[in-house]
Amino acid sequence: MIEPFRAANRGWRTATVSGVRRPIARAVQLRLDVHDRVDHLPGQHYVVRLTAPDGYTAQRSYSVASAPGDPLVELFVERLDDGEVSTHLADVVEPGDELEVRGPIGGWFVWDQVSPALLLGGGSGVVPFVAMLRTARALGRTDLLRIAVSARTRAELPYADELEAAGALVVLTREANGIRPPGRLTAMDLVPLIEPGQTGYVCGSGPFAEAAGQLLVELGLDPADVRVERFGPSGGPA
Amino acid sequence: MPTPTRGFLGRRARDPRLPPGQYDVGSDWPVLTAEPTPRIAPETWSVTVDGRVERPTTWTWDEAHQLPRSEYRGDIHCVTTWSKFGTWFAGISVDTLLDAAGPTAEAQFVMATSKTGYTTNLPLADVTGGKAWLVWEFDGKPLTPEHGGPVRLLVPHLYFWKSAKWISKLTLLTRDQPGFWEQNGYHDRGDPWRQQRYQGD
Question: In order of start, what are the domains of chain A with their CATH numbers?
């Protein structure tokens, strides 16, 4: 856990944008070649800083979707209409651009790659879990992860194909998913995913994180074994 | 100064109340916590001041409300880059608690502990002299659980992770020890005007 922090200590560095994709509406997936990079742990985030010609800066945190073994760092950015940084990343950034980044950051919302984990993601809150899933695949240990994700519609769920292929429970709140009517994640949904010794990870908007965290506690997880990462249109990444 | 980012002009106003790298969140108040929100009934809440003090003391909800009321009106700043202007909190001054408990001469630091086990460390000088509060009211209403109710620490001149929610204990120490986020990559002191966000800043 020491090594990743050293990277943050070394401060800002340059990343060259290698790929820009828009797999779903109102979002952008950036593949970055981070110069002098230190490997992250799955669940950590990067900070992206934009600088205006007058020296004004704006910075926001974005979860990493890629596994540590990926030669590039993949960030998934939800585009918020009033998001000063996310609109620039989604609308302006092109391959070949250089961005200032800092990371990896965060020593709490990380998966240790050996313990069982129950992952609950809402909307773009699934991104750190994609990093965990890809890491588990590289290690041949996808058996350690149980994943449930929630979005308004399937078209708005980041990494939907990849998550479904991994066996994630997909809950949609505004449309049916197969035989499942629209609705929120419930305790009944999670019962089959609970296993002894799991650490629960919850990532999503404030309301999602609040509800999902309480579900895990109701299902018997010790609150000390539940790690929560919240964000939202006004919260963290903007 | 860093190299300008191609095509970025910066939409936000350059408000002098904003520390560097912060934006005005407006009327919103984002919730950021690392753990599930605990539900704590006010009648079961208490706060203890212990460690390097002459008189370790515990106050219940009712006892804390007997202490002189103290308010904070001003701005708060979160390390995730939002700032909120013109907040209004009410409760008691940390000075009142420390005056009662009597820090010993060697006390230099404070570890704040939450009911959940969350911790954050502060120099004693950052919570004395009218700079820190225990608050149970926001905008004249009871502080809600997701914002740290019934009672949270408020240290508004530092990034807001220092303002521990669900505060239950202030332990005075002779030496500094890292708290929860301070062990997890964040800065030891967290002065927003110096952008002390992460270790090494």
Answer: 2-105 (2.40.30.10), 117-231 (3.40.50.80)
Q: Give the Cα separation of A95 and A98 in Å (integer).
A: 9
B3 at A interface, C-beta within 8 A: yes
End-to-end alpha-carbon separation of chain A, Å? 27
Kindly state whether B12 is in contact with chain A, defined as any CB-CB distance less than 8 angstroms.
yes
Is the CB of B21 less than 8 angstroms away from the CB of A56? Answer: no
Q: Token digits for B200?
A: 């090494």
| A169-172 and A145-151 beta bridge pairing | parallel
Pairwise CA distance, residues A107 & B163, whole Å: 20
DSSP β-bridge partners for residue A21: A29
CA distance A193 to A218: 14
Residues of B in contact with A35 (CB under 8 A): none
Closest C-alpha to B8, from A114, A73, A235, A92: A92
Q: How does pLDDT run across A162-190, given as a tens digit for each residue?
A: 999 999 999 999 999 998 999 999 999 99
CATH number of B46-194: 3.90.420.10
Size of interface A-B (CB pairs under 8 A): 136
Residue A85 is encoded by which pair of tokens? Answer: 């940084």
**DSSP state, residue A198:** P
CA A127 to mean position of chain CA atoms: 2
pLDDT in tens, B26-51: 888 888 888 889 999 999 999 999 99
DSSP sequence for A132-160: HHHHHHHHT-GGGEEEEEEESSGGGSTTH
Please list every residue in chain A whose beta carbon sits closer than 8 Å to the beta carbon of residue B40. Answer: none
Cα(A128)–Cα(A26) distance, rounded to whole angstroms? Answer: 19
Which helix (H) or strand (E) segment holds residue A97: the answer is: none
pTM as predicted: 0.89
SS3 A173: coil
